[in-house]
Structure formats: C-alpha cells, structure tokens
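[Protein data]
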Amino acid sequence: MDSSECCKVPKGEIIKRIEKVCLDVLKMIATGQPPVLELPRCSNWNDVVFTESINFDLSHNCSVKRVAFAKAQSVKKFATMLKIMKIIYCLIQENRYCTKRDIYYQHPELYGSQAGMDRVIDDIACMLWVPRWELHIVATCKGLVAGNLQFKDEQGALTDCRQTISGIQIAAHSKDMQNIQTQARFVLIVEKDATFQNLMTSKFCEKMKQSILITGKGFPDIGTRLLLRKLWCQHQLPMFALVDADPHGLEIMAVYKYGSRNQAFESRHLAVPAIQWLGIWPEDIQRYSIPETSLIPLSEGDFKKAQALKKRPYFKHDVDILSQIDLMLQSGKKAEIQCLDAISSLYLCDVYLPSRIQLMLPTQTL
C-alpha cells in the first residue's frame, strides 16, 4: 500500500472550493434565483457503491440533498453552513485549528445543538469533497494506543507508547502523530475501553512486545481511524479486530474495515480493508463451552440489525461472516468479549489472543 493514498487536500484547493460555493450563491442571488446549496445524499445503500479496492464511495447516481434559502425548513441550515464555511476559510488562511466545541459555544443559539452542528460540518465536508479533518475543525479524540509505537507531535516532542499503564490519548489530527516508528508485527484493535484496560493490566503489550494495542472506545472517531490507516499505509501491518459477538460489534468492525455509509466519500482515506475479524466469533461460544449465564439473549433490535448486516454490500458475499451471523441468529444469543472470563480471568490475554494471533499472522512475520 502506497502511503500516498493517505494524501491531504492542498489548503489552496479547499479555499478555491469554498470560494466557488460562495460565488455560485452570489450568482443565484444576482439573477433573482433563491440560493441553494447542493451536496450528495448518503441516506440509503443505493447512494453508495462498494468495491474491494476503495471500499465505499458515492455512486454516480446518488441522490442530491438541496439546502434552500427559500424554504422555511432549511433556511437556518443554509445560514449555518455559510457561517461555518466562513470560519473554516479563516482557519485555513491563518493556519489555525479549532475544536467543534469551541465553535458551537460561539453561537449556540444558531447551531441549536452540538450534534446538529456536527451534522452541518459533515455536510460541508461532503459538499466540498474534503475530508472532515482537513477543514481545520477538530473533534476531541477518545481513542487510546499502547505498545511498540513512537511518534512526534507538531512541535517535535516524542511520545513512546511503551511507556504507559493505561494508554496514550490518540491525537485528533495526524499533524500531531508524525515520524511514526514501530517494530510491531501486528495491530490489535479492541472494541471497548474496558477490554483495553483489562489487557493493559494483564501486561499484554509486555507479553507480546511486537504489538500495538488500540481502542476507539466503541464506534471509532476520526483520529483513531486516521492512525490505523497511517499504520497500514506506511508499515503494512497485519490488523486484527477484537469485538463482541453481536451485531453491534460486527458493525463497529465494519466501520474500521470498510468505512461508513454516511461518510462514504471519506472511506478511501480512513478504511483499512486488511483488518481481519479475530473474535469473539459466535462459534467460540460452543468451542469454549461458554456457560449460558455468560450469554445474553438477542433483542428484537439485535435480530433486525443482524438481518440487515447480512444484506450490507461488504458482508453479503462473505461466506465466513455470513455463517457466523447465522450461528448467532440460530442460537438467539450474543456474547461479549468478557465471556471468556468465565474460563479464567487471564484466558483472553494469555491463551485466546496469543493462539489466535499466531494462527492468523502471515507466515513471513513469524
């Protein structure tokens, strides 16, 4: 994988795209037309295409979302989009960065809610065809990393991820994770912070010295996904995902591996197709004789989610994953990673992970 695939959109190009949007609005006003902002819509699976080479991307036939000044239901969003584009324009010109939260508290009455403002930023990124992290508006990163990894921030300060007992906070922007160095043989991506901390307490990184341990604490943020993409682009490391044996865990793994539908145009910058599902597999429940008391019945929502996952473009031809989903549906049970604690509190760290990683690692890395 060529690291050039992780390239940035030049600042001058982003400036030009914002200026073009504003110029188009002015032209519409000058000709007596109510101004409209148009952007691709990613509200259903027909709006995206999926290929193994680039994962999700917007379909050429995707529908268009129109944010019109003349319509009462969208006039506020129209104004908000222009306001935030002005902020982005100034930030890029001045080479400054700002958090989403800082922007929200400048004009909370305009944005309505933090979540609403976040959706507007997503729409602007999609309209400009610029990844969100290049707009100089950053979100607080929740991900953690530990293990055989060193990097420098923008000021040149070195961080050694071997020197931590609970994980190093992943930076919100790649500018603070430069000059990455590692001798790791693989990356283990853990769904939950609780499991991450359990592995840290059990000395996983010391026992498997040539490893990197990462968690996005549930659905991953951009900073966590950017780091994984960078490790894949620059170091071609094998990557394994440890998630719950339930529809929610599978969907989290899919976001890491394939990207998300709502941000389909960013998948080429964030997705890591090489990620393999290490566990927990539904078949592990029987293989390891996990007691019924450690299992959870699938809810009605779980059944619906599992059936929907089988139809997703990235899963519908994957016979291995489909068979695991079918096993889950047939049993009517789901299992969290912690179910292995029923065998032993150290079973996950000392037995399950080493044996499965050894089995899944390419022979040339052994």
Observations:
- DSSP finds 14 helices and 17 strands in the chain.
- The chain has two domains: 3-138, 144-365.
- The radius of gyration is 22 Å.
- Residues 144-365 form a domain with the Dna Topoisomerase Vi A Subunit; Chain: A, domain 2 fold (CATH 3.40.1360.10).
